[in-house]
Amino acid sequence: MASAKSWSLALVLLCISLSYLVNAAGDNNGSIGASFIFGDSLVDAGNNNYLQTLSKANIPPNGIDFKASGGNPTGRYTNGRTIGDIIGEELGVPNYAVPYLAPNSTGKAILYGVNYASGGGGIMNATGRIFVNRLGLDIQIDFFNNTRKQFDQLLGPSKAKDYITRRSIFSVTIGANDFLNNYLLPVLSIATRISESPDAFIDDMINNLRNQLTRLYQLDARKFVLGNVGPIGCVPYQKTINQLNENECVDLANKLATQYNVRLKDLQTELTGKLPGATFVYANVYDLVMELITNYEKYGFTTASKACCGNGGQFAGIIPCGPTSSMCQDRDKHVFWDPYHPSEAANLIIARQLLYGSTRYISPVNLKQLRSL
Ligand SMILES: *[C@@H]1O[C@H](CO)[C@@H](O)[C@H](O)[C@H]1NC(C)=O
Ligand SMILES: *[C@@H]1O[C@H](CO)[C@@H](O)[C@H](O)[C@H]1NC(C)=O
Ligand SMILES: *[C@@H]1O[C@H](CO)[C@@H](O)[C@H](O)[C@H]1NC(C)=O
Ligand SMILES: *[C@@H]1O[C@H](CO)[C@@H](O)[C@H](O)[C@H]1NC(C)=O
């Protein structure tokens, strides 16, 4: 008799601890879900560490302010957290989305999300070829297809489908490299530019992206965040090589970005009509970063033109950040960490606007609202 009693007690305890384990794994009313991050170096959290590539950030002083690694480089192209990291944190996800190529992107860790982003990657396959290796968006989505199958195994097909459609956010932050490291490349791309007008190139980009987003939809993605291309003509690299003054930006690069962004907004409208049940949120990174650059003092920065870590020219904008770079003291007073990427201080302001801001920067809903849809 006593043994039957202790058996049932043990069974109850087992059930409690099992349900605790399931909850701890992220299956908890949808308050915490997954964040799947696609994109380029703005949100790469370490995938390029596992590639033979010329685009790498796992060298100091990158990551110097990243608390989770004790200030060691992780492959993030900034001094601290990326926009993706901050958004995950604020939405209550207990760990940063693991890089797909990292050895620990297996088992329950993926229930909080996976990061597929890769420095140098773009919408077009050819983008970033000067780095030898990088993950373009086509390949990033092939990888998500693998993850999708792992979800079926982890949760069972019907729960997995529910988890992906209702509790997961898919952010796509890409396009800058298609201009900077493809269409606008000096020398390498002159032939392309002669044979293909900006309109035709942007057409190709949008057509590719339409297919790519539709593939994600076929794999059950429903909550999308589309980041537009920032003011790439204002990054320290572009300002340095074009020998601009502090308050000037490269016109052609910004024009291309703006032209692409208009088409991206149209694509948002088109896909919202075409793909039932999907929400496409447009993140206006261009205006947000432009606001930081124009009114940097208002946000507590002392410069929006000079890279904190880098070398070369007036804006330290030629040689990427590495062990031999000069580094500023006041890292949170610089909008730009290196010749291309915002500092953690700038990322914080950007991320908070996307999370809680108004339709000026994020529409039709902000990320906090998207999460609870
Ligand atoms: C789950 O939902 C119940 C009832 O709706 C609520 O009381 C509980 O706090 C929720 N748990 C979490 C982790 O959000
Ligand atoms: C995965 O590994 C990285 C690098 O070792 C570590 O920083 C991160 O916390 C790990 N994430 C999980 C969820 O285990
Ligand atoms: C890009 O490359 C991938 C992988 O090699 C391939 O599957 C895909 O068809 C290519 N896309 C285009 C548009 O060429
Ligand atoms: C996912 O992979 C399977 C093969 O395992 C393939 O048949 C399917 O077309 C892929 N789906 C997408 C959207 O790429």
From TrEMBL:
Stored PANTHER family: GDSL ESTERASE_LIPASE (PTHR45648:SF1), GDSL LIPASE/ACYLHYDROLASE FAMILY PROTEIN (AFU_ORTHOLOGUE AFUA_4G14700) (PTHR45648)
Protein name: GDSL esterase/lipase At2g23540-like
Signal peptide: 1-24
Family from the record: Belongs to the 'GDSL' lipolytic enzyme family.
GO biological process: lipid catabolic process
The organism of origin for this protein: Durio zibethinus (Durian)
Pfam families for the chain: Lipase_GDSL
An MF annotation (GO) of this entry: hydrolase activity, acting on ester bonds
UniProt cross-references to CDD domains, sorted A to Z: SGNH_plant_lipase_like
Entry keywords, A to Z: Hydrolase, Lipid degradation, Lipid metabolism, Signal
Gene3D superfamilies cross-referenced by the UniProt entry: SGNH hydrolase (3.40.50.1110)
Keyword Transmembrane tagged: no
Keyword tRNA processing: no
Stored InterPro entries: GDSL, GDSL_Est/Lipase, SGNH_hydro_sf, SGNH_plant_lipase-like
